[in-house]
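Q: Can I borrow your eye for a moment on a structure tokenisation matter? Would you mind producing a protein record, from residues through to fold? Write it directly below this note and I will take it from there.
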Amino acid sequence: MAYDDLRDWLAALERAGELKKIRTEVDPILEIAEITDRVSKGRDAQGNPGGPALLFQNVKGHPGAQVLINQFGSARRMNMALEVDRLEEIAERIRGFMDVKSPQGFLDKVKMLPMLAEMGKFFPKTVATGPCKEVVLKDNFSLERFPVLQCWPKDAGRFITLPCVVTRDPKTGKRNVGMYRLQVYDGQTTGMHWQRQKVAAEHYRDRMRQATVEALGDASRPAASWKVDIMARSGGGSMVAEGGQPSGKMEVAVAIGTDPAVTFSAIVPAPPDIEEYLIAGFLRQKPVELVKCETVDLEVPAAAEIVLEGYVNLDELRTEGPFGDHTGFYSLDDLYPVFHLTCITHRKDPIYATTIVGKPPQEDAYMGKAVERIFLPMMRLTIPEMVDIHLPVEGVFHNLMIISIRKSYPGQARKVMNAIWSLGQAMFTKCVVVVDEDVNVQDLGEVTLKVFNNIDPERDIQFTLGPVDSLDHASRLPNFGSKMGIDATRKWPSEGFTRPWPDDIVMDGKTRALVDGKWKALAKELGLA
């Protein structure tokens, strides 16, 4: 059954021995991050990587406050968060929905009713009120009451790092829930770090277009239409628009400390027309209950620990950063919108949920692996020859993707590379490596052996230009640079390779079976038992 809220999730972690409560006084400035970094790079009592979830209960300068961190920071906890034994179980559920064929007759339609009924259970529902409304502050509120962390020495200040940021598409009314860090400027304002390729940044641009149309009049005229486009070109990462920016506001709400399915849904690469609240309902097999905000026209999870309400001005940008990022480097300062708070609501004695990012492995590595496993079936819709995919944690999500394919025709590996670079957030992938289906992409040793034996570098490596991640500090320009694809599949005569391709060295089955029968005794003699 789904976790009701963050506290229900914490109780489950404690029962499973996955939560450690820290009563030693700790400072939210750097100290909590250093402790968590050591824990996340260590192992638990059973030798599993990741260490336990941590609940700090004696935070300097914040009497009575509690800070939760590393809640997703192990393979076991990631499974627990999504209530599965294996992440592939969710992928199989997704595959089941995708495999449904269009009904051909009345009986087919009847057979679909149970599945349609099940899908109906996932849609969010709005309720009158919820725990997040236990305390409502419309005046004299301040973010400084919460133990927001500074994680690294050269960070520009304190950052809210695990927020569910809610915006609404000004054209369609569809809600989006994304995770964009918030630099705390003072008690009532933060930065809003939505990079230009993120959905909320597109909502911001669309709102700017609307405001520009209102200011200019008829945007159907070519000159006006061109000016609207120029003025709405911002969205994160050098967001200054040419020719000035229109005035106006865009409403935003931020939920902190949601149940694990909602938090995880904020980072998933959702299809454009599917709301993250629906994805969370699918993951938790129960609808997310929402409440309307007090001062903005948005809905937030009713059981959230903390809710921040407010707006960003369309004509206001401010320097945000530097920030110690998941790449292992500081992302540089840049101009981003400013989030102005109009109201704070929270539960009594709220738990502040946060995370740190930095040199891997960190908590986000396990969240990234979950995305990889769960969304493989959806990637196969576009790339049906794909067998498996691996995003090594050292590749920090966007630097390296290894794909195995079922090769059927010459040049197919290059087709797959280009398909990856056209897929949503996968477009940022700096290096794509394609191998044959018999290569286990999860085994980096095997991948390394096969790739570097199988390639002729001049023939098998291709380069292309296109959008790159805003955090890529090595690209020639912000958000634009080169990408590399490596075709490490076996080469065919139809690809111009006329030499014999050698066989892998593999022991015959009869000998392996013979040694298997003797291995127990041999292991004793070898001291391996």
